[in-house]
Structures are given as C-alpha cells and as structure tokens.
C-alpha cells in the first residue's frame, strides 16, 4: 500500500518536472515483500575519517559505489516495516528497533558522504558530480520521510472523517534536486566512470 502511494506520488511529481526516469517506481509493488521479522539491518554504510586528503580516482569510485549501494540496501530494508505500519499492523519492540536503526544508518550514510566530499580534495571531474549525487540522495530520503508523514496524516484525517490536506508545495520544493533530469545526469556520470551500483535500478554492483 505504501509503495503504491509513494510510487504514484513521486512518479507524478517527477513526471511534472522532467521527462527523465524516476528513482522509485511502483513496479517494485510486484516484488515479494519480506516479513518484518526476517529483515536484516544492513551492516555497511559509507564511512571515512579522512580530512584534507587528496583522494585518488580509484578510491573515489569505490566511495561513490559504497554510498549508493548502502543507500539502496537501507531503502529496501525499510519497505517491509513501512508497509506493515501503513496497513495498520502493530510492530513489536524488536521491529521498531530495527526500523529506528535503519533510519539512523540512512542519515549517517548521507552525512558521512557529504562530509567526505566537502573535507577532501577530489579527483578532477568528481567534485561537482559527487555533490550532485549527495544532494540528490539526501533530498530523496527527506522527500520519502515527508511523504511517509503525509500518508500517516492522510490516514488520520480520513479516520476522523476530515478532509485530508496535502502539502504539495513543500514536496515540490524538493523537486529542484529530486527529478528525472538530475537522475539522468547522475546515471550518465556513473556510466562514464564505469561505477557499478545497485542504486537507480542499474543492476549488479560488482566492479
């Protein structure tokens, strides 16, 4: 249910802003949903303590790959919990702790990568595109959090017999970053640099 709502809303927004492909689609709705008890919290996110280093191209490619793959795994891991909650199924303490950990890791992943590209010298041709990737993924996550909250509010209003209110203006403000046009630029950069990632539905993440 959540995927249908989120997927439809995001597709609508991105379609209005660009003819490019969208990051998240309802095609995933056909995938088998994993039971929340079986979800494993991803064990790897992007981390780096480096500051004021000159990063070589090999490390930069691996950093981008790790960041995007981690984002993808965390995004997928959150779906079963969100689906369960939006279908008004109660989560037990263990399930809530898993979801909280996934959310925490998602934010850490974004902050760690943003700090990494801000505090080091990147190879030629990588600074602008790395910032584009960081801004896109961070805004995408923020958009999903906002849509999740909106969905909950819609359900609460509907249950109270009130007319649901949708703050489209707030969501549309994020589409300057999260849109098909920007995603196409990111995908073109990844392809040019031969960076294989599971994000964006690009397939295998093997080098």
Brief write-up:
The protein has helices at residues 2-17, 57-86, 93-119, 127-159, 168-172, 180-192.
SSE topology:
Blueprint: H1 2-17, H2 57-86, H3 93-119, H4 127-159, H5 168-172, H6 180-192
What is the 3D shape? globular
Contiguous runs where pLDDT drops below 50 for at least 5 residues? 1-5, 13-30
Helix count, DSSP H or I runs of 4 or more residues: 6
Give a short account of the largest sheet.
Answer: none
Average pLDDT confidence is: 78
Oligomer: single chain
Q: What is the strand tally?
A: 0
Structural class per helix/strand content?
A: mainly alpha
Count up the domains.
1
Question: What is the terminal separation in angstroms?
Answer: 35 Å
CA gyration radius, whole angstroms: 18 Å
Strand content: under 5%
Helix content: 55-70%
Element order: H for helix, E for strand: HHHHHH
Summarize the structure in words.
This protein has 207 residues and is mainly α. The protein has one domain. 60% of the residues lie in helices and 0% in strands. The chain contains 6 helices and no strands. It has helices at 2-17, 57-86, 93-119, 127-159, 168-172, 180-192. α3 (93-119) packs antiparallel against α4 (127-159). The two termini are 35 Å apart. Mean pLDDT is 78; it is low at 1-5 and 13-30.
């Amino acid at each position: 249910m959540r995927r249908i709502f989120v997927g439809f809303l995001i597709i609508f927004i991105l379609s209005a802003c660009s003819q490019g492909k969208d990051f998240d689609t309802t095609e995933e709705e056909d995938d088998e949903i994993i039971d929340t008890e079986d979800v494993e919290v991803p064990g790897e996110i992007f981390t780096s303590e480096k500051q004021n280093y000159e990063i070589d191209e090999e490390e930069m490619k691996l950093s981008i790959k790790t960041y995007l793959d981690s984002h993808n795994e965390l995004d997928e891991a959150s779906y079963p919990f969100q689906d369960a909650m939006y279908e008004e199924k109660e989560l037990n303490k263990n399930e809530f702790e898993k979801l909280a950990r996934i959310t925490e890791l998602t934010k850490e992943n974004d902050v760690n990568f943003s700090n990494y590209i801000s505090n080091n010298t990147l190879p030629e041709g990588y600074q602008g595109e790395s910032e584009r990737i960081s801004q896109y993924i961070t805004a995408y996550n923020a958009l999903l959090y906002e849509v999740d909250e909106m969905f909950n509010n819609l359900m609460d209003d509907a249950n109270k017999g009130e007319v649901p209110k949708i703050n489209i203006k707030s969501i549309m403000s994020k589409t300057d970053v999260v849109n098909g046009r920007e995603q196409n630029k990111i995908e073109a950069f990844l392809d040019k640099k031969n960076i294989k990632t599971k994000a964006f539905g690009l397939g295998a993440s093997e080098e």
